[in-house]
What does this fold into?
Amino acid sequence: MGPKPEQLVSDRSLDLIVLAVRTRSLLCRIPGSDTLVTLRTAVRDEVPGEIVTVLPSKQWTLGHRQQLSGKVQGSRLDIPALGLAPLALESWDEWDPEEELGDEPTPDWLVPIVRRGPRLMFEMEQVIPGEDPNDPWDDPITEAADLHQAGAIVEARELLMSLTAADLLCVDAHAHLGNLEFDHRPSQALRHYAVGIAIGAAALGDDFDGVLDWGLINNRPYLRCLHGYALSLWRLVEMDTAAAVFERMLWLNPADNQGARINLADVRAGRSWSP
It folds into this structure.
């Protein structure tokens, strides 16, 4: 016989880390351990990477996994409590505005960035569970995006949830889960993007002043989360916060491959979001 399962049912609430959201359950991990728990509950709007506070009512074992039923009392985003190792940052050459821009006229949004002068470029580590590094066609993120494009939303979500279940550090899974919600539930999309942003921010630290160039492809998941987050804020008419995120994107990637400068101008002008 294996070790006796930890007793989880009591008159006290407990915290669980959400790894994946299923139709009628949440796959969770107990903070500070590798123990997985399936929480049987009415799933609301929880997202992978959040911590749920649960008042448990019943505990049992099904197969080799602990099952728990109970009421979810609340959820929060607390990246340090997840116990994840920060994504690594690889330093590259300097980004020099004089070399990058040459004699081109400098638009107003770019003036303070140019004045700041040269800054180091970095590439953020990208985690994709199950990816075969020797097979460029074996990419579950691309597969999920293709499923989304084909209208197979359920299949796309299941695939992305399998990635977060394997490793919450898969920032691109959070970005694409946000994309699945963006058209119909921007407030829910916001929560997915927020997790990816918080994971990336933990790697950058509070005083990061470098460049995350879009051309360094492993930066793209984090930049996608920022983009989706800002667009969701814009849709929800959180104009000041959306503008701040678009500005942050321009400082991180002055080449602006995502069109943040255009969106920023529209937000500052008070224009409503439109597809």
